[in-house]
Amino acid sequence: MTDKTPVTILGLGAMGTALATALIEAGHPTTVWNRSPEKARPLVERGATRAATVADAAAASPLVIACLLDHEVVDALLGPAADVLSGRDLVNLTNGTPEHARTAAAWAAGHGIAYVDGGIMATPPLIGDPAAAFVLYSGSRAAFDRHRETLGALGGARFLGEEPGLAALYDLALLSAMYGMASGVRHAQAMVGDERAEAFSAEYLAPWLQAMAGPIAMGAAGDDSDSPLGMQAIGLANIVEGARGEGTPMSLLTHMLTPMRDIVAAGYDDLLPPLIDEIAQA
Ligand SMILES: NC(=O)c1ccc[n+]([C@@H]2O[C@H](COP(=O)([O-])OP(=O)(O)OC[C@H]3O[C@@H](n4cnc5c(N)ncnc54)[C@H](OP(=O)(O)O)[C@@H]3O)[C@@H](O)[C@H]2O)c1
């Protein structure tokens, strides 16, 4: 016997499997359901119980966690199980928009389900390591407080507030920054070329990006005294000209050129060298 809260996981893709594994390792009686049942086998071997239906899975635990492909799949699976979910706590860790979260919270409230929306800021191998993974939550504070410790088994648990869309908003904003960084990384690697890319990434690119996290933490407020805009514009022009000169594909620079177009539109064009002006207007 254990005093750990029983938990149900709906969805055993890459992420759902990692969540279930972390809960099993933390000693929680864990029930799992997946559309393709064979994915449950390794988890059952580690102590999980496989449920045959979503309703059976939901009935097994006071805390039900959904980690599915998208909002449509969540709706299609949970809608018919609303009666069973009633009176339970539902944590939806499926990626979605703030509006998806608000709609789901309203649906849940209408069925007596305490709803928490969430955004997982980690890849599956990081799940279970609170130093590396964190999960954003918003919605029912009572449900979050009931399961704070259990959710902590997945990664650092950060509650943003009772507005259900907040976790999705922060999740998407963080992902937007990640994808912007990723396109910059791809462009940087393309600039140095395939032969140098691996050593360049390990020795220079990763440490450089880590160092740049410091200034990012200071926020977006407009003080550019350390790095004046005019100076940055010249640097950007040199990136564009240098990449073009070395034959690097230009398409990955969209993440830099689009904001620069906005800066021009906002009237800072007198600070910008002609090359940037020309590109930003294109
Ligand atoms: N993987 C990551 O790095 C990561 C990181 C952060 C957040 N997330 C989020 O976690 C969620 C799950 O991602 P994942 O990586 O686990 O994706 P995944 O490996 O593609 O798994 C998708 C899951 O959804 C199920 N599914 C898809 N269509 C379905 C349908 N029509 N009916 C029933 N079940 C259906 C799949 O079932 P089958 O197994 O039967 O196909 C599987 O359980 C997503 O919202 C994702 O954004 C993932």
SSE layout and pairing:
Layout lengths: L6 E4 L3 H12 L4 E4 L7 H5 L3 E2 L3 H6 L3 E4 L4 H8 L3 H4 L3 E4 L5 H13 L3 E8 L12 E6 L1 H6 L1 H5 L3 E4 L6 H27 L1 H23 L12 H18 L7 H15 L5 H8 L1
Parallel strand pairs: 1-2, 1-4, 2-3, 4-5, 5-6, 7-8
Antiparallel strand pairs: 6-7
Bound molecules: NADP nicotinamide-adenine-dinucleotide phosphate.
Descriptive account of the structure:
By secondary structure, this protein is α/β, with parallel strands linked by helices. It has 2 domains: 7-171, Rossmann fold (3-Layer(aba) Sandwich), CATH 3.40.50; 226-282, no CATH class. Helix content is 53%, strand content 13%. It has an 8-stranded mixed beta sheet, sandwiched between helices. The chain is elongated, with a radius of gyration of 23 Å. It binds NADP nicotinamide-adenine-dinucleotide phosphate (NAP).
Stated plainly, the CATH topology of the largest domain is called: Rossmann fold
Q: Give the total of domains.
A: 2
- Which of globular, elongated, flat, extended, rod-shaped describes the shape? elongated
- In round numbers, the mean pLDDT is 90
Strand order of the largest sheet: 3-2-1-4-5-6-7-8
Q: Please give the alpha-carbon distance between the first and last residues.
A: 67 Å
Oligomer state equals: single chain
What is the top-level CATH class of the largest domain?
Alpha Beta
Total E-strand runs: 8
Low-confidence stretches: none
β-sheet strand percentage: 5-15%
